[in-house]
Amino acid sequence: MFDVIVIGGGVVGGLILRELTEYRLSVCLLEKESDVCMGASKANSGIVHAGYDAMPGSLKAKFNVLGSEMMEGVTAELGVKYRRNGALVVAFSQEEIATLQTLKKRGEENGVKGLEIVQQEELRTMEKNISDTALAALYAPTSGVVCPYELSIAAIGNAMDNGAALYNDFDVTSIARKADEKGETYVVCSKNGQEVEGRYIVNCAGLNSGAIAALVGDDLCVGARKGEYVLLDRESGDFVSHTLFFTPTKLGKGILVTQTADGNILLGPTADERTADTQTTAQGLAFVIEKAKKMTKNPPLYNTITSFAGIRAYSDRHDFVLEESKTAQGVFHCAGIESPGLTASPAIAKYVVETWLSQKMPLVKNKKFNGTRKPDYFFKNLTLEEKNAIIKTDPSYGKIVCRCEQITEGEILRAIRENPPARDIDGVKRRTRSGMGRCQGGFCQPYVAELLAKEQGIELFEVTKNGKGSSLLTGVTK
Amino acid sequence: MKKSYDIIIIGGGPAGLAAAVSAYDNGVKDVLVIERDVRLGGILNQCIHNGFGLTRFKESLSGPEYAARFIEEVRARNIEVWTGTTVLSLTKDKQVTVIDPVHGMLVLQAKAVILAMGCRERSRGALNVAGSRPAGIYSAGTAQKYVNIKGFLPGKRVVILGSGDIGLIMARRMTLEGAKVLAVCEIMPYSSGLKRNIAQCLDDFDIPLYLNHTITKIEGEKRVTGVVVSKVDENRQPIAGTEMHFDCDTVLFSVGLIPENELTKEAEVPLSPKTRGAVVYQNRETLVDGIFACGNVLQVHDLVDFVSEEAEVAGRYASKYVLEGKSSACAIDVSAGENVSYALPQKIDKNISGNVKLFFRVTNTFRNCTIKVTSGDRVLLSRKKQICVPGEMETLLLAEQKLQEIDGNIVVSLENEVNV
After folding, report:
1. Same domain assignment for residues A334 and A215
2. CATH number for the segment(s) B331-420
3. Chain B window 253-272: which residues touch A at a Cβ cutoff of 8 Å?
4. How far is A261 from chain B (nearest CA, A)?
5. What is the domain-level CATH number for residue A139?
6. Interface TM-score (ipTM) > 0.90
7. How far is CA A468 from CA A10, A35, B135, B353, in A?
8. Does B35 contact chain A (CB < 8 Å)?
9. What is the CATH number of domain B1-120+257-324?
10. A336 and A212 inside one domain
11. Share of chain B above pLDDT 70, in %
12. In a mutagenesis test of the A interface, which of B121, B142, B170, B174 is the best target, namely the one with the most A β-carbons within 10 Å?
């Protein structure tokens, strides 16, 4: 019996879970997939938006600005890379320059600090590779970059360290009401026969948040929007330093060119509402490349290391849905958390717990709560002496497994052993960056697979890329 | 602990091993070979097919057998070897930062460094192939490692993109292990693999080779379920309406090798945009004093025999550099002319005695053509060739006295009568 059940292990669910563990509550997270952070939070632009985009008065505007202010603190506690690299919204015509003024005004109304318009000459000194046809830009110094899956996984891991339970492969199929002496509770069942009971439910199921809402009788219209990306090698990481946006049109923010938190260059995304799959398309990737070439001079496409697609959930209200169920008391929906959802997530988490849940039940601080987490990348930042001290007690930190990102066996073992444990190749990749580099796992994958097999006590051919049905190998040789 | 060496060799594959023996035999005994794998031999360890050593030893060896001959030579000389050690960084002052479980992390100082890191395979990601990203997509070399080293089969129905040698070898290997190889697709009008491999690995097993074809879509959510293959036009763009579908559970990529020059760049060694390896003199010294390069980190070779030969040059001159302290200079520039994609060495130091062997590749398949080495209007060398293909490296020997006679730069080109 849990006090609170969180459905959906993305960044919103993860940060809510962590927020809940700050109080004396028993909480759990239900995740449909074999690992956490498998939906929208694993493949997006990773931008911490300044907050000039959203319409004043909207939930997006409110939580964007709040979240942006909280991000530095949250990421520092969780040991997650975050950098305020600043954003430039670039105008290519007089009409777009006029739009920049509107954006600036809107941003100021939303409470965004430091916005200024920069002219062509200054723009060129700020970004050496900006296109010659760029005329001016809105500079938003508070905009930043964060790795979305690093943040999600760290939040969930920290919540688990503070007592939260994680149920993987928990694809929710029913939510039934049940009454006990203290009032109403909910029994949540999964496709594979798991069952948990709790008093309150927070629905953060992303793409499936509409389906979860329907299980308790609410009608939320949640759509899917696919975005395709191209990722360039860290070697080209200094190609741009800010996040470069096109001036938004009615069709949306368009594609961006940015440095990522890990120092790669990311181009994208497209915005396609026709399909809900994560396949890349020749047309989509060509569009991304065409726009990147419009924004910048000679983008180093020869350093492309991968392309991918992510899915964002959006509500037909085109604003966040943050509300209690109309039919089921004690069920709260966080739905349609599209951009700037990543930015807003820490503020949403605080809101759900401090504003909503606190009215439902008395919240008592958990004195044992420890909100800090050792960074996944901690080893990299140590001095030579500190590294040697660690290698002396744990020689696995002296063994480089991923040569491109220089990831050690010790770091990989830690990802497999610590909360939330990595169970497959992609899980290790998202936690350690092993396989994220220029060879895309060509060299390290067999090694990582062996570590996964050994640690989990399974055979090498049972190791998967990303859960059931994704075996790396089909059998043994003759 | 000893932290300085006369020569540090980065990489214990065929290039590093041959360089070590050569450096030692030419007078420098204080040599350290650093290998990141737990054993010496590099990629040869997973190349269990034969055909290695035909040029050098006049016999057909497997990869591990070829490597063993050099490992024995290294052992016989008691050359110091660190295995399981990764070089994290290299400076132009020849400081080598390494890490391993035994020594921990430390900075070594060398008088000369020989780069012998080899190359890596271009991945699916680098090509922007559309579709999904399920399990069952491997570079050919990764599949080779699973099969030959780990003893596991990566899949049962296979489509291979790229007809490079590793792809061809793996087409045969997977077939021998009971998998069905449905097709090898090559976007170019010719294979980049050796002719003997096309014959022995595809033709002998009735595996179809589709030239001018590429994979335009990968399907499957968790594991590959199929691919779409399309014909391409002369600009290598897929032609609508030519799509073929293959049901398969595995896609192997053999789409090119990239010299692993991350350390080279860090040491500020200038690279050639054509080879993606260092610019070198004929003695394999780079443009940074005392840093030499050889093997696939310098240029991707067809045969390991040539890697060994090149490494011996680097080893010999690295040794000379340590003993005499003189760097290469006084250069003639060598460049690739018409129909030639690159020529190496890019620089010739006239003060280094001996003939110079030029290595180069042509840009297309040419029949009844003439290869020329010119300096200004002067033709230094001219050779008629029945056939030249991009997949096979060409060589020419430039006599020392010819080099002494010229003072301009050199261009290697191919005159073509019939382009097939």
Report:
1. yes
2. 2.60.40
3. 262, 265
4. 20
5. 3.30.9.10
6. yes
7. 20, 11, 11, 64
8. no
9. 3.50.50.60
10. yes
11. 99
12. B142
Identify the H or E element spanning A321. strand A321-324
Give yes or no for a contact between B315 and B18, defined as CB atoms under 8 angstroms apart: yes
The three state secondary structure string of B220-273 is CCCECCEEEEEEECCCCCECCCCCEEEECCEEEECCCEEECCHHHHHCCCCECC
In this complex, is the C-beta atom of B105 within 8 Å of any C-beta atom belonging to chain A?
yes
Tell me: do A141 and A229 sit in the same domain: yes
Q: Which residues of B touch A440 (CB under 8 A)?
A: 123-126
CATH of B123-255, one of 3.30.499.10, 3.90.550.10, 3.50.50.60, 3.40.630.30: 3.50.50.60
Which of A279, A307, A473 shows the shortest C-beta gap to B154? A473
CA distances from A213 to A135, A174, A243, A396, B384 (A): 46, 11, 35, 46, 77
Percentage, residues of chain A above pLDDT 90: 96
pLDDT of residue B335: 96
Phi first, then psi: what are they for A389, rounded to 5°? -65, -40
Reported as a single tens digit per residue, the pLDDT across B295-341 is 999 999 999 999 999 999 999 999 999 999 888 887 899 999 999 99
List the single residue in A396, A443, A477 with the smallest CB-CB distance to B152: A477
For residues A299 and A342, state if they share a domain.
Answer: no
pTM metric for this prediction: 0.96
Instruction: Say what percent of chain B tops pLDDT 90.
Output: 92
pLDDT of A136 above 90: yes
Measure CB to CB from residue A398 to each of B100, B176, B249 and give the nearest one: B100
Which of A474, A476, A478 has the most B C-beta neighbours within 10 Å, making it the best mutation to test the interface with B?
Answer: A474
Instruction: Inspect the interface and report whether the beta carbons of B128 and A442 lie closer than 8 Å.
Output: no
What secondary structure letter does DSSP report for B203? Answer: G
